[in-house]
Design goal:
Shape: globular
Family: Belongs to the iron-sulfur cluster assembly SufBD family.
Pfam family, one: SUFBD_core
Number of helices: 4
Structural class: mainly beta
Radius of gyration: 20 Å
Number of domains: 2
Mean pLDDT: 92
Protein name: Fe-S cluster assembly protein SufD
Length: 373
């Protein structure tokens, strides 16, 4: 499969299944300028040999069909063409893909949990496909644990009138490196809800993207991250509005503490000429809890039609509000507890979007553990 070009944006002009079609990143490219390439363990330049192992297990809802598929399966790569070298390397290097299908009009009675567990030895590559046939409804949880150097692609194919809710939890060990692309392709009147939680790992670079194939699609992308000393957590989003009367909403919030803690958020929204009636908004907020932490936040909105229902973006990074802390302390709450309450409030509205109580409480607990550090 050869090179494809798309006249969208200078940032997203190339896609290919072949790593050779992409230059090896140097760090001077716009899409790589924030990523510390020396910490990618060779995932970006082809030197990372596929000698490691990330075990994939699926605890599926009764309505789901789970299969292991080879590269020749027509469903593999049908919805997404890699847009950078690491993504293409992952596509060229994986051995078996996990395919989870929810049949037409099926309503899953419980979440399907896909767990990725690193063994801590060598690099590994993976591919996952989640297919919702028309009018199906499902909740899928992607959970990443253990130690790994891992690159993968995840395709979400949401059929006409279907509803998919995804929670992706990056809870890796402290030495893990994970570079991943999540791509959702939405059919007519399809609904996609994504919640990304990134807490663990030495370097995590997650790139969610959304494309519409018919009018009426509705995508909501939410993210929460907490970077500690030395951690690099990067989220690069792309919403490609190519159909009329579709919606998208992006809200990502992060907290950072410790020397060298680094968070990167890039939000790209493209509204093509034919995408009249688009309604879109993106928001990023960062809390810098200590000196030495750094947050880079870059929203980009490219509008190629004047007929939109709404389009906007906002981004801000700052420290805890002294007035909020003072207000709580004036009512007898110690400083440490007041600080914790303000940070909880910062994340609370997002966490309410996790509809699984056990998972929501687990994420709350992990955020609390980060604060204890």
């Amino acid at each position: 499969m050869g090179l494809e070009t798309k006249p969208l944006s200078s940032l997203h002009a190339k896609s290919s299944y072949d790593p050779a079609d992409f230059e090896v990143p140097t760090g001077r490219e716009e899409e790589w300028r924030f990523t510390p390439l020396s910490r990618l363990k060779g995932l970006h330049d082809g030197t990372a040999a596929a000698s490691g192992n990330v075990l994939v297990t699926v605890d599926a809802a009764p309505e789901a069909v789970v299969e292991t598929a080879g590269r020749g399966d027509a469903r593999i790569g049908a919805a997404y063409v890699p847009a950078d070298r690491v993504s293409a390397q992952a596509y060229a290097s994986f051995e078996k893909a996990t395919v989870v299908t929810f049949p037409r009009e099926a309503v899953a009675s419980e979440p399907t949990v896909i767990t990725f567990t690193g063994s801590g030895e060598g690099a590994a590559f993976g591919h996952t496909v989640v297919v919702l046939e028309p009018m199906a409804e499902a909740v899928v949880v992607l959970e990443h644990t253990g130690s790994a150097v891992y690159a993968d692609n995840v395709e979400f194919v949401v059929g006409d009138g279907a509803t998919l809710k995804v929670v992706s939890l990056q809870d890796w060990a402290d030495d893990a490196v994970h570079v991943s692309h999540h791509h959702a392709r939405l059919g007519r009147d399809a609904t996609f809800r994504s919640f990304a939680v990134t807490l663990g790992g030495d370097l995590v670079r997650l790139s969610p993207s959304v494309a519409y194939t018919a009018p009426g699609g509705d995508a909501d992308l939410t993210g929460l991250y907490f970077a500690d000393a030395g951690q690099h957590l990067e989220h690069r989003l792309l919403v490609d509005h190519s159909q009329p009367n579709c919606k998208s909403n992006v809200v990502y919030k992060g907290a950072l503490q410790g020397e060298g803690a680094h968070a990167v958020w890039i939000g790209d929204v493209i509204i093509r000429v034919e995408a009249e009636g688009t309604d879109t908004y993106e928001l990023n907020r960062n809390l810098l809890l200590t000196d030495g932490a750094r947050a880079d936040s870059v929203p980009n909105l490219e509008i190629l039609t004047g007929e939109v229902a709404g389009a906007g973006h906002a981004s801000a990074s700052g420290r805890l509000d002294d007035e909020h802390i003072f207000y709580l302390q004036a009512r007898g709450i110690p400083f440490d507890e007041a600080r914790r309450l303000v940070i909880r409030g910062f994340f609370a509205q997002l966490l309410e979007k996790i509809e699984l109580p056990e998972l929501r409480e687990r994420v709350f607990a992990r955020v609390e553990a980060e604060l204890e550090r």
